[in-house]
Amino acid sequence: MQTKFGKLFDATELNELRKKFKYVDAQANGKKRVFFDNAGGSLRLIDAEKRFHAIDLHPDASEHLNTLALELLDIENKGREDIRTLFNAKHGAIATGYTASQLMMEAVRIVSENVKGTNVVTTCLEHPSSFDAMSMYAEKYGRELRVAQANPLTGGIDTEEVVSLIDKDTAIVSVMAASNISGHIMDIAAIAKQAKAINPDIIVISDAVQHAPHGTIDPENDGIDIMNFAPYKFFGIRGFALMYVSDRVKNWPHHRLLGSPSDNWEIGSPGTANFAAMSSIVDYVCGLGKKAAVQDADRRQLFETGMKRIADHERALLELMLEGTETAPGLRHIPGINVKMDDPDLNKRDLIIGIEFANMDAVKAREELEKHGVVAFERMGNSIYSARMLEQFNSPGVVRMSPLHVNTPEEITFFLNVCAEVAAL
Asked: Are 297 and 377 in contact (CB under 8 A)?
């Protein structure tokens, strides 16, 4: 089905895709539910979990030379290649860590120690791992912290707002790829290009944790020096994180064993199982791409095509959520519901929606939704993760819905009917 902004997977293919994920329509105890909290940790790809556990059972170390150890090294290196495919990284280095927040804060520290300039620029919508690190190290090194404000109507950061804060003495600019509250996609390529026209030495950082599962990321093409993402939000495993580091930054002093190359950003014994799981994720997306890609497409082209199909389906779902289905009015048309940060151009949005209920706060609304079989999450003004963002949108709190590309139009209809019931309580 083609909509104004997207194209749904056909029912047969969508049913097959749902079989590849765990707990799509029910939790472990068999209780039925619609899971719309993928922004907090997505549905798990079964093959990624299986490969992780199969590999992780081996005691052998991929750094050793026995036969199985060498086989594990091959699996690990294949995972490294696939991670580069995901980033489209032909150059630079790949850093690994426990969480994406850990990697981001470490990257901001390292960059702050090595750049020249009197000010740094970030935005009010950044995740605390970026915003707080930028604040801490701006203070430590005596730099002015400049904060770009959000567009209250679209829920995004306008390019002009960021660029207006940059001058020849700006050392760092940090702008996330997409908001984890509004879903708005920032034009990080335009920001990077204009920033470097003002100061060619500026370092550009982008948090892609929220955007990576919904669209392609391409830091080298977009002029980004640091970009991170978290596999657990991309169908994968918790406890593992990845970050691209550009050629301009990769050899700067950072934690590493001193006998290793200066561009080595992996510390300690690698977890081969994590790399195997990443290969499963890239395999899955490339499999989607094979059904629409040109003949003889390479792995990155297959990946890009697969991600485009994911984005097309998700934009169509977003359109249905906002405007409604044949049997249910959309969120924009349900009395007692206010859609916040509602940019009408869905091409600029990932599949995330924040709404307010007139008859209850976001905590109570989330509880009521779950009683009716919908799992979402509240973003509240008293949270360190949300306060700074919600201030921009004059909201005490929103219920955030974050479906995934394996959700169906029927689930959207169910969700909309539940919202109407809750709004009428």
From this structure: no
Q: How far apart are CA 331 and CA 413, in angstroms?
A: 11
Domain 50-281 listed as CATH 3.40.630.30: no
Q: CA of 97: how far to CAs of 209, 215, 309, in Å?
A: 14, 22, 29
pTM: predicted TM-score of the whole model, two decimal places: 0.96
Convert the pLDDT of each residue in 51-98 to its tens digit: 999 999 999 999 999 999 999 999 999 999 999 999 999 999 999 999
Give the rounded distance of the alpha carbon of 416 from its chain centre.
Answer: 25
Fold of the 11-45+299-423 domain:
Aspartate Aminotransferase, domain 1 (3.90.1150)
Dist CA 363 CA 34 (whole Å):
18
Instruction: Give φ, ψ of 122 to 5 degrees.
Output: -140, -170
Q: What is the pLDDT of residue 1?
A: 82
Choose among 204, 187, 186: nearest CA to 195: 204
Tell me how far CA of residue 389 lies from CA of 132, 222, 379, 395, 420, in angstroms: 13, 25, 10, 9, 27
Domain map of the chain by residue range? 11-45+299-423, 50-281
In degrees to the nearest 10, what's the CA dihedral of 87, 93, 97, 102? -90
**Angle (nearest 5°) at CA 105 between 100 and 110:** 125
Which residues on adjacent β-strands are paired with residue 144?
119
Per-residue pLDDT tens digits for 306-357: 999 999 999 999 999 999 999 999 999 999 999 999 999 999 999 999 999 9
